[in-house]
């Protein structure tokens, strides 16, 4: 019990590459504890994490995710208050939620690398913000190949069906996690996340 508690409290920030899961390849990715897993999903616990984020609210357009990616990429490429270039981390996490009449809200996140966490460069683009997410537990379903919107929705539906208990997650939003650039052709890794609340 004590050991578990210590392990949980230690989860925060990113993995140094030697300990990272294989699907992070050579990129820094957030640390987590796997609470349990089955053939359909895993339950992972993440500590507080700091991200650069940018959002779009409206009706889906095919170039939206590319635009959001471009803003965050610009930020890590040195268009920030310190003129600092930061390494790309994984996953590219996108939170998707209803915005009522306005349509859908898409918020893309790039994790701030550990090496920049003591002095985080401020964004120059007014549409890019820094955000720290509190510790949270997620139901996570992994899948391969290229993750388009349709594929992600079908994997999300499989995750929902497998959990088979809507009381245990927040159904106001879901997240998609992408670990590979489009140029990676094989052994791709993607995830859909639902935040566990009970
Ligand atoms: C830096 O960001 C600002 C605000 O988004 C933008 O106007 C400018 O073109 C960017 N500069 C470069 C070099 O990308
Ligand atoms: C910032 O976001 C607003 C609302 O989505 C948009 O109208 C504006 O063009 C964006 N500005 C930049 C610099 O991308």
From TrEMBL:
One Pfam family of this chain? SOUL
Taking the record's annotation, the residue ranges forming a coiled coil are none
Keyword Signal listed? yes
Q: Where is the signal peptide?
A: 1-18
Question: What are the alphabetically sorted keywords of the record?
Answer: Signal
Q: What SUPFAM superfamilies does the annotation carry? A: Probable bacterial effector-binding domain
**One example GO MF annotation:** heme binding
User: To which protein family does this belong?
Assistant: Belongs to the HEBP family.
Protein name stated in the entry: Heme-binding protein 2
Species of the source: Patella caerulea (Rayed Mediterranean limpet)
